[in-house]
Design a protein that fits this description.
Length: 66
């Protein structure tokens, strides 16, 4: 059960990042600065989401900290 929930959360994080990157690609030709910021936001979102998810899994004892 925990594994399914973890996968669902990870997929949602990935989905948001993909949407940000699609938007960056869409605006790149007429607003490269915004496109770069959107791509950076997607990367930061994934990194923060992964970190939050990992910390929660450690706190709940689902995974061990190493």
């Amino acid at each position: 059960m925990a594994s399914a929930a973890i996968n669902m959360v990870a997929e949602r994080f990935q989905g948001v990042a993909e949407e940000l990157r699609r938007e960056a690609w869409r605006v790149e030709s007429y607003d490269p600065a915004t496109a770069l910021r959107l791509d950076d936001a997607a990367t930061a979102f994934c990194e923060a989401g992964t970190s939050i998810l990992r910390d929660w899994l450690i706190e709940t004892g689902t995974i061990r900290s190493n």
